[in-house]
Amino acid sequence: MRLRILRPSSVAADSAPAGETPFPQEWRELYSAALFETRTDRLTLRIRDAERALAERARQLFAGNPKPAELKAMDACFRALDALRFCYGLRSDENESA
Hints:
Layout: H1 26-35, H2 40-63, H3 68-87, H4 93-96
Helix pairs in contact: 1-2, 2-3
């Protein structure tokens, strides 16, 4: 099985008119920060921040007009963050409270 990690610049960037951002950048920036974090002591925080931003954006989308391309990209990013956590042997917030 191959894991494909989406680079934020490739996430549905072709769906917007030239010079226009397809959707809010915050989750994409936080996702990048988590993917490219080199300090393992900061990785858990970066992943958590990215997941929170993704969840907030998902709430915004479902409250309004969901964009299928963005939802698909966000799902892939959630999965990539989970795989990153697993690869580093980090526990999710849910497991930490158990």
